[in-house]
Amino acid sequence: MKLYNSYTQQVEDFVPMEAGKVNMYVCGPTVYNDPHIGNARPIVVFDTLYKTFEALGYNVTYASNYTDVDDKIIKKAIEENKTEKEITDRYIESYKQVRKDLGARNPDYTPRVTETMDKIIHFIDELVQNGSAYVVDQDVYFRVNSDSHYGELSHQKVDDLLVGARIDENDKKENPLDFTLWKKTDQGIQWDSPWGKGRPGWHTECVVMIQDVFKKPAIDIHGGGLDLKFPHHENEMAQARQTCNSTLANTWIHNGMINVGKDKVKMSKSLGNVMQAKDLIEEFGGPACRWMMISTHYRAPLTISETVLENAQKEISKIQKPMSQAKFQLCLADKFDLNALKDEASWKTFIEAMEDDLNTPNAISALQSTVKEMNQLLRKRELDYDKLNQLFASISGMLYVLGIDLEFHQPSEEDKQLYCNWKQAVCNKDYATADECRAKLMELGLI
Asked: pLDDT exceeding 70 applies to what percent of the chain?
C-alpha cells in the first residue's frame, strides 16, 4: 500500500507500527448544524481507505470524534432555548444518517469532547507545567516558540506565517501565533479547571482523544480535510511534540476541497453556495453521491454539479442491470455461488489501483472493464457459469471496497416461471405472450 504523506510530501510505502494492524484517526465535525457535502467528503475518503486496508487483510481500528462544545453550539442552544447536549445529539444523529446513506460504516470509536474533559484539562496542565503553555487572566495559550519544529507539517516557516483562521491576535498573547488551549467563559457550558471556569480550545481536543482511544503517543494515520492542515493539525503536532516527543501520526492524509458548479467556485458559507448532504442524497441517492466523490482522486479538488451527479446515476445503472441479470441467470440454472472466488485478473487490477494512494478513478475503470466483460459473457448462447460467478464475486467485492451499496433483484419463483413462459411462448411462436413476458422481465431488469 502506497499513500501520500502530507508531512513528507511524498508517496510512501505504508508500513504500520504493528504488523497487520492499522490505527487511524480522522478529525470529525463540530456538531452545530446538518452536514454539508464538504463534511461528507472525508467520511467517504477515509471509509474507502478503511475498506481498502480491510481488503488487504489488515485489522483496522478507526476513530473519529465529535466536537460537541463550541461557540456556535452555545449560540444555537441559546437561540433555541435548549441545552448544548440537545443540540449536539440532534446533529450527531444527522451525521450518522448521512454516513449510513453514503454507504460508510460507523467508526469503531466516536469520542466526544464533553466526555473527555478531565483528560483534556490534565493534558493542558501538563503543557503549562513544562513551560509549553502559559496562563493569562484565566486563559491558557500554547507557546509556539517552544516547538522548534513548528511549521513542518504545513511546510511554512514561523517567520513567514500569517495569522490564520481560528488564531485570534490579541494583547494577551506573547506571540500572535500562540493559540488558545483553554478559554475562560461565563456563557454556556463550562467546566472547572486550575485556571478557572471555561472550556478547551479546539486544537487540543483531538490530541487528547487520540491518546485516550489508542493508548499510545502516536498512531499510523491521522487525517481530515485539507483545510485542517494549518493551523489545526500543525497545532496538534506541536502539542504532541511538547508532551511526548511525538509527531502524533506517522502518516498525515488530507482530502481536497469542494468546488461547485460549472465555474468550479469554491464552496463556502460566505458565498452562500453550501450544499447540504441530505438534500443531494434525497435527490440523487446515496450511491450516486458517493460515486461522484470517488470518481475524483481524494487529494484533488472535487467539483459538484447536477450534471456530475446525473452522470453518476447513469454509471451506477450500468452496473446494477448486468449484475441483476447475472444473478438471475445463475439462479435459473441453480448455479449461484455465494462463496465463489473472485475473478483473479480483474480483482488484481482493481486492488493495485487502490493500493496506489487510493487511486479510485483507476479502480472505477477496472470495475467498469469487469462489468463490460460480464455483459459480453451474458450475451453468449452458452453461459460459462463458473466465470459468471467469479465476475459477480469480483464486482461485488469492488463495490464493497468503493462503498457503493447497491441492491440487486432477488429472483423469485414467479420470476423464474415468467422466464420459462417467455421461452416457451417464443418456441410456440406465440409472439403476443412472448412480448408480454419479455416486457415484464425487462421492467424487472432481469433481461
From this structure: 95
Quick one: pLDDT at residue 407?
Answer: 82
C-alpha angle with apex 339: 348 to 393, nearest 5 degrees? 40
- Do β-strands 258-260 and 249-255 pair in parallel, antiparallel, or remain unpaired? unpaired
Quick check: 259 and 303 in contact, CB under 8 A? yes
**C-alpha closest to that of 142 among 178, 177, 113, 168:** 178
Query: Using 50, 70 and 90 to split pLDDT, how confident is the model at 387?
Result: very high
Q: Are strands 258-260 and 265-266 parallel, antiparallel or unpaired?
A: antiparallel
Report the candidate in 252, 241, 229, 254 with the shortest Cα–Cα distance to residue 161. Answer: 229
Q: Residue 444: which of 291, 325, 301 has the closest Cα?
A: 325
DSSP letters for 312-354: HHHHHHHHHHHHHHHHHHHHHTT---TTPPPPHHHHHHHHHHH
* Residue 264 confidence class, pLDDT cut points 50, 70, 90: low
Q: What is the pLDDT of residue 262?
A: 62
Q: Using an 8 Å Cβ cutoff, are 130 and 121 in contact?
A: no
C-alpha cell at 395: 464486482
Distance CA 327, CA 391 (A): 11
Q: 262: exposed, middle or buried (C-beta count within 10 Å: 0-12, 13-18, 19+)?
A: exposed
263: pLDDT strictly greater than 70 = no
C-alpha cell at 291: 460515486
Q: Which residue has the cell 470524534?
A: 65
**Residues 106 and 99: beta-carbon distance below 8 Å:** yes
**CA distances for 381 relative to 261, 326, 373, 377, 378, angstroms:** 46, 14, 15, 9, 8
- Which residue pairs, CB below 8 angstroms and at least 24 apart, start in 156-165? 156/230, 164/230, 164/231, 165/227, 165/231
- pLDDT at position 445, please? 84
pLDDT at 163: 47
Which has more confidence, 64 or 157? 64
As a whole number, mean pLDDT of residues 310-328 equals 94
Give the residue among 370, 373, 386, 374 at the shortest CA–CA distance from 326. 374
Distance CA 87, CA 266 (A): 28
% residues pLDDT > 90 (the chain) = 81
359 CB-contact burial (10 Å; exposed 0-12 / middle 13-18 / buried 19+): middle
Gap between the Cα atoms of 44 and 37, Å rounded: 10
Round the average pLDDT of the chain to a whole number and report it. Answer: 93
